[in-house]
Give the backbone structure.
Amino acid sequence: MLQNIRTDSKAKRAEAAATARARREQRERARQGKVRERESEARIARYWKGLTPEERERLDAEALAGAAPADRAAYEAAPAPVRRLLLVGLRDAAIRRRLGLPAAD
């Protein structure tokens, strides 16, 4: 009987350790994902800043032309301040594709 108690206790400690390890690994993956996303955002910003005004206009036009129909319809139906915000998202997606970055979540 004492042996069963010891075995149960060891099993519970092992399970608790595995759970704690899994949580640490999950937190680390989340942290790494945030770091990668910040790096991607910095690359996008550098790319945008490196463009001339004419290149920026072309990129915006391409981003809008390449947008999904629903996104384009939302853009066209939105008031000007909202359009600017929507265009930033479409532009960033286009730059991500150009740079070979994964799509934003």
Remarks:
- Residues 8-99 form one domain.
